[in-house]
Hints:
By secondary structure, this protein is an all-beta fold. 0% of the residues lie in helices and 38% in strands. The protein is built from no helices and 11 strands. It has strands at residues 33-39, 46-48, 52-57, 66-67, 82-89, 92-97, 104-106, 109-111, 117-119, 124-127, 130-136. The protein has a 6-stranded antiparallel beta sheet with strand order 2-1-11-10-7-8, with no helix packed on it. It is elongated, with a radius of gyration of 27 Å.
Amino acid sequence: MNEVELHPVHATIPATDRADRAPTAPAVPTVKPKLVVLRGMKVGAEYPLYEGKNVLGRFADKPVDIDLVSQESVEQIWCSRQHATLTFDKGAVVLEDLNSLNGTWLNGARVRAGQPRPVKPGDVVQVGTVQMKLVIG
Length: 137
């Protein structure tokens, strides 16, 4: 029998990216704002904000995006059916009162209907008796 000598074989391993290909830009992190309840029946509850207008209030005859009916006791309801809006557009959040009966508050200052106010991370929004902090996650 013939004995065959085994020699190590050197192979070229191709790179995973071609050197002439332009590097791709890193992914832009998506901003995901949410409201976290500080004061209400369910402290710690989170409500995500979606792109565009988010209506805060109590779902009854008109739909709302953030339903606060479970946050106030049935004996003491201060939140209007359509109380306020939080508009999330291009990374910015703006709060506006919708002529609510008991008012909308931002960091303890009243927000009047027709006078939108920018909301920054850490700011506290109050609707009725419910206080929520804006968090960017």
